[in-house]
Amino acid sequence: MKLVLSVVLWLAIYSVARGQNDSLSVLPEHFRDIEIEVGGLMSSGYRTPFWLQANQFALVPRSSPAGTLRLGIQEQFSLSKVYPNRHISYGLQVAGNAARTSAILFPEAYLSLDLGHFSLWGGRKKEIIGLGDSTLTSGFYSWSGNALPITKLQIGTNGFTPLGFTNGLISVHAFFAHGWIANSDSVRGSFLHQKALYVRLGRPNSRVRLTAGVLHNAQWGGRSDVLAPGMTKDGRLPDTFNDFLYVLTAREGNESDSPSLTKFDRINRVGNHLGSIDFSVDINLGRWQAMGYYQHPFEDKSGVAFINLPDGLYGIRLVNRSTRKDGFQLKHILLEYFNTMSQSGSIANNSRYDGQDDYFNNYQYVDGWQQGRYVIGTPFLSRRDDVRAELRNEQPEKRIWAITNNRVQMAHLGLAGNISQEVQWQSKLSISQNYGTYRYPFVQPRPQFSGVVWLTWPLQLLGGAELRTAIALDHGQLYDNAVGGWISLRKVWKTIK
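Structure for Capsule assembly Wzi family protein, as requested:
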């Protein structure tokens, strides 16, 4: 991990000093987007169907009926007329939801400084992190856009940066971030440590491009009054600078270095670590662009060593690059398979590689890998509060675990295209078999189907707006059955100078 950190920081500096700026598209000196959307949803029960709420940055209420109003602005100012792509920008979005539990949310509120290939920003941004198809995906493994964005400060490259000494054949994308995770029922004031490094072989116009990388997340620090004895030191989780160095390098703790470490911290490493090791290949097939990818999950060293194979998210994407828009067209196809059945095996106390990885659960951060009661990663690892009532009560002793279902097999189909020159459509269809967890399996596997179809209609209203409509269905034994619909009116005003 020390080597990864050194490489990340070196690449960020190198991209400023030596980056090939002509590889970036030249942006206008000033642009502004103002967006407003008003809409609502209704379902056959109190619960919003899965594909109306999943991977929506927590903006769609879980309960039905509900209404929403969203206002947003993004603006960018050029810092130099001589050097392109030197600019400062900001974004702000506020959403007000009226439902059984009403809320005002701020999914975006950030300020960003971009100097060519170098980027520094702080605040909240809508992000999906990993290698894959972010448009139709079932959800990237560890950072999917399912939860409200975490407030953080981030430094890194501005997208993939070609390395000058390779003549653009190799490019990198890297970043380093510190964040503040929202208070939960068990822990207050915890932090996010996040870093990533992706390396791509192939130029933008290459027929084949290969990419690989790693995303490392860790929740650390904080205070708690409810954790079991031995999990904290006087209600405090490790949060000193020395403790951060353990988080940074994912090393086992040493009590002589930091008196704030418990025996649990020393044995299990400081903080709750997880992430994914990703691989992808892009192939230009002429009219079609193909992509294959794999996101490999890890929670500890057994995942890093790939002992938990074949767990992970597998995807194949085809995009039709034809510019023809008349008539019905299929423009985008995605097939995904998601598996978390291995978890490095069923033995929890192996002398070298522990099993029962128990994805997204943790003994100290018992609310799991979530922000504001939404899973941060793939929504197919289910929170206890989201599943059917009888599953929550099968085994009373498992109620301390926030993620009640993390052994899953799932197949997903995403499709998108247009019906005419203007009307666009999109569909997501997912079928899964759900087994609970290793420690507390469901009495029997629970099958589940969830699907949605979206239609976006252009309108002449307000000088050009769009009507967004959807119908979604949940049928199975994991969630309460529901049929629901969404309708909203969206308008964007663009200013470019």
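The longest strand covers residues 441-459.
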